[in-house]
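pasting for the record
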Amino acid sequence: MARRFFNRDEELAALDRRWASDRGEFLIVYGRRRVGKSRLITHWGEQRRHLYIEATAGSESDQLADVSIELARVTGRSLHAEQPLTSWRAVFAAFDELLDDGPIAITLDEFQFVARGNQEIGSLINRFVSRHQDDPRLLLVISGSDVSFFERELLGYAAVTYGRRTGSLHLRPFGCFEIAPFVPDWSVADQIRAWAVWGGMPFYLAEIDPALDLGENILRTILAPDALLRNEPAFLFAQESRIRERDGYISALRAIASGQTRLVEIAERVQRSPTDTRGFLETLEQMNLVERQRPVGRRVGKKVSYAITDPFLRFWFRFVAPFESRLYSEEAARRHLRETILPALDQFVSRDAFEEVCQRWALEHVPGATEVGRWWGSKRVRTPEGLRNRQYEADVAALDPDGRLVALGSCKWSDGDHDAGELDKLETVATLMGADTAPPLYFFDRSGFSPRLRELARERDDVRLVTTAELATGSGG
């Protein structure tokens, strides 16, 4: 199936602006593996004079040979391929000559592989960009997927190239409803389910056959023995030079996916000390695979949990990693899909993916909201057994720039109408969060709302009901 290219209009426009600039441009493009950096750059470069070089983890002589082959292709000078360049100094001298033939975009992709093996490369880039900073014929693009390396070595204040770049693009996965072009005829509910399974990585989404249903696509792209994404996490970790003990990272992600989200719980699962386990988690944070979560508005405190940020990895570590021994054939994989995954899928979608969709909507539509997330806490209440701590939480809590509560929300994905009892819970949360006045209350639901909740929404301006259709279209608020 041919790979499709969707979205990225803003990123394409940014490349167009730099191509049309009246000066030399040096753009840094970075983002996680599989997010579509190379596809974006090569798609944009198809209609332009473009030298695209993808570095590999091989030796410097191999890298220089690859560069020489691409130079031969762009210039038509076979000598480059027959007598490969022997240094990166020679490469940048060849780049100088390319400009004599007119405007050109030069891309060094997966640049981290070059930088790790050549301490001089940053200085060579600096001098090259300095020579051509006023030359509108040059667009130099440095790209790569080692996010922490790019932020530290190329974008940070201490970076050799700091101050030379004229722009940067951090390519991020697609949001939930940005994946619609990949599944154009699927219902809104199935689009949300699809995002919960494959996430927003174009490489994964391109594998979906929109003519098949959700379950069949899960089988063909993830579960079957020959599925492209069956062993995707192993591939991701194999590509990361920072990963030394893969089993520890896998165990940490499996623990989080199974609901063991506190440091002590993860350490017990990994069978390491909390200190060692924190090191695993910090690396996963640097890779943008895991994040620390606190109740929204709290910057410090002991109420810290860890969450997997990528929907696909959440799905894989929840439904594939623990059951690999079951997936020995396509028929066995189909049985696992039917008996284990599909019955639990909506509960899985509800806890993280649907809440994230609602939180994103609130950030864009709630007046004054600049920070949105979950909130959880407890309240001492009297019970027949005496005073007890009762847990309360809000799926959506929106704060303004001063940290004041401006909205609370409840998300319900499972079958059945949203009940008015949730309103009382949110009002208690508002009190626990110290709100001076009762904030607007939002109810997000896939199935519908109870007659009583609909009546309250008609009677009260501060009660608002949001359907999945409104989430998809960006309406409401």
